[in-house]
Amino acid sequence: MQTHQLQKSKGLKDKQRRRGRGNGTGTGNYSGRGLKGQKSRSWHSMKPFFEWGQTSIVQRLPKARGFTRYYKLVKDVVIVNLGALDADPRVTDAMEITKQLLKDLWYIKSAKAFVKLLSNGNYAKHLTFKDIDAFSGAAKIKMENPGKVHSASRKAPVYIAKDKKSKVGKLKIKTPTQKKETKKLVASKVASAKADKAVKSEKVVKIVKKDKVDKSPKSGVKKAMEQTAIKRTATKKAATKKTK
Length: 244
Hints:
By secondary structure, the chain is of the alpha/beta class.
């Protein structure tokens, strides 16, 4: 047999290059091995699980009985939404949905996958499901009565109105309409509190006008000084009378 009589074995698809046959072939000089190092030598050989001196994964994994790998314990769940099936024109009304059909429609990669149906999106088609592993609670409600707007399942938003200036407590409201009503209530309470303050201040002003009492600390000091001065003059007069 000569070189021109050689043929490729069956199953080989990649183009095989002859290495070390000159620079014109694209792998000249070093034949694609690089310049130096362990992998450039002719004696080089490496075990399949060799990790450059690090303990290989084969040695690190436990081999006692009863051990299971972590990826075998974890269940991979593939999610399919009802809204996607409803919007898909390939899925007609009253169609039976199976794993094989979902695979054919490119919703899942394998018919052996663990499939769970969720309720995202609008759902109006009367579909029947067979061979599906799990359903969410909201998806079951939508499947029972399709085409209905399911807003009651979600809780109404809770708003908390607070007024820092007036010492009015927290007001919890369940709906936006009640929120407006509570704002009005808070405004009325604030206005009534301001009115009460104004009335109290007016009463205080009236009392001060009636009494006309100067409660300033300076006025008290002046009065004390005047009294001491009067006492001194009285004592001086008494002393002068005795001398006469």
